[in-house]
Design brief:
Layout (H helix, E strand, L loop, with lengths): L8 H12 L2 H13 L3 H29 L4 H7 L6 H33 L11 H6 L4 H18 L1 H29 L4 H9 L8 H14 L6 H7 L7 H31 L7 H14 L4 H34 L4 H21 L14 H29 L1 H9 L7 H27 L6
Bound molecules: tryptophan (TRP).
């Protein structure tokens, strides 16, 4: 058995699910669901995940397994991408740019977990605690260093003993913790109104904005368009059922997002009598600690919650790291060990710039965005859709859809073959173009989604 392959299908499923289930599921999904009409958003999200999301997951994984090339650059080259060759580089650039800022946020999560662990969580509810923490000079760097060191150590152990083992242990724990917290928040007084809001389907919310927001979230949440699945597909055994694995990954990612909504929306409703659930960092680092403080046993729930978020962030960061290893090995013609050192320096260095973006470097900004927001914008609104479009074009015009279908069929029947063929040919690329344009316009406040 090779050290740098997955040892089992379950290992592959858990590792990809580990990459997919991350901060996006926990802090972004509940916010979007609350904003776009609860049940309405859920229905649109699930429908798009099973169609467009499925199509891109299968496409990227099949390219990885077909070529056996862990880096998208190599995979594109092997497939004679010709003029589309730059697509391989774009797919490679995304995880390289995401890892540092994702790790900086991972550090924040670790800090909050630490405060609950040491019993100092009362401090967290002070109104300016979060903004003062991220603007402080030392602590964010320290926690970034700890977070990155943990990733580094896991990567040192290789794919099978590092990435796969970590996912096999942490993902089941994560699911249990999510069920536990959502079960508990449902019992808090006033939570029922939130559940009703979250699950009821409101026809007036079926709009273009809801579809665009759901599509964008699907790509981010399933880690599509950034080479991760090409890397992990290349570590997959030809015998392992590709279609079933992808199905299970989708179920797990959607389940955790759904449970995150179940944990957060009713609790926030009960706390603020139905006031809007705030977005992003302020939800996780400001509102939730306040909500937990108002609950019985809130100190324990807060501790468990931040442990869960930490596991979600860690498995995602490690898979980003792993994809980057493949890329650095390829580009610098080096070995895994040296690539690991380089990436540790890169993540620490650029992550530090991201952290200092709230302190000494706060003068660096573009259209009001911090360094973190700039990286997030460039990766998710521009490179991610562009990389995914290149992959779709590569399949339709160069590799040909038949070859991808044949790759899937090596390991099983392809039950969703017809829908796959249709979507990859006619729907995937236009959907990606719509996301890209909408996200760019929204960032510059030309439209709002
Ligand atoms: N899917 C992750 C989440 O939901 C975030 C993410 C985006 C990611 N792209 C990625 C994680 C690539 C790992 C690899 O938070």
């Amino acid at each position: 058995m090779e050290k740098n392959k997955f040892s089992s299908r379950l290992g592959f499923v858990m590792a990809v699910a580990g990459s997919a289930v991350g901060l996006g599921n926990i802090w972004r999904f509940p916010y979007l669901a609350a904003k776009y009409g609860g049940g309405t958003f859920l229905v649109v999200y699930i429908a798009l995940a099973l169609t467009v999301g499925f199509t891109l997951l299968v496409s990227e994984t099949a390219i990885g397994r077909l070529t056996g090339a862990p880096s998208p650059i190599k995979a594109y080259r092997q497939l004679n991408a010709g003029e589309l060759k730059f697509g391989g580089y774009i797919n490679a650039l995304v995880p390289i740019l995401i890892l540092p800022y994702y790790s900086a946020i991972g550090g924040w999560v670790l800090k909050y977990f630490y405060e609950y662990l040491t019993g100092n969580h009362q401090n967290l509810v002070a109104p300016d605690y979060f903004s003062e923490f991220i603007a402080s000079p030392i602590q964010p760097l320290l926690f970034l260093l700890v977070f990155t060191s943990i990733c580094y150590l896991i990567i040192t152990r290789g794919v099978k003993d590092g990435v796969e083992k970590m996912s096999l242990i942490l993902m089941p724990i994560l699911i249990v913790l999510a069920i536990f917290i959502s079960g508990y928040t449902l019992t808090t007084p006033g939570a029922f109104e939130g559940v009703k809001y979250y699950l009821s389907i409101k026809p007036e919310y079926f709009t273009i904005s809801t579809v665009v927001a759901a599509l964008g979230q699907i790509f981010y949440s399933l880690s599509i368009g950034m080479g991760i699945l090409i890397t992990f597909g290349s570590y997959m055994d030809k015998k392992d059922n590709l279609e079933a694995s992808i199905g299970q990954i989708e179920i797990m990612d959607t389940l955790i997002a759904f449970l995150a909504g179940m944990m957060i929306i009713p609790a926030v409703f009960a706390f603020s009598n139905g006031a809007n659930v705030a977005a992003g960092p302020s939800l996780m680092f400001i509102t939730l600690p306040q909500v937990f403080t108002s609950m019985a046993y809130g100190n324990i729930i807060g501790l468990v919650f931040f442990l869960l978020v930490f596991f979600a962030a860690l498995t995602s960061a490690v898979s980003l790291y792993e994809a980057n290893i493949a890329i650095v090995e390829e580009v610098f013609k080096t070995n895994r060990k040296k690539a690991n050192h380089l990436l540790f320096g890169w993540t620490g260095g650029i992550g530090a710039l991201v952290a200092l973006g709230f302190n000494k470097l706060s003068f660096v900004s573009l259209a009001g965005m911090s360094i973190l927001d700039i990286l997030d914008f460039v990766t998710n609104s521009i490179f991610m859709p562009l990389g995914a479009i290149c992959t779709v074009l590569l399949i339709v015009f160069v590799v040909k859809v038949d070859k991808i279908v044949a790759e899937v069929k090596i390991s099983s029947k392809f039950r969703r073959e017809k829908i796959y063929r249709f979507l990859v040919r006619y729907i995937a690329a236009p959907a990606l173009i719509i996301i890209m344009i909408s996200f760019i316009l929204a960032t510059f406040n030309i439209i709002s989604i």
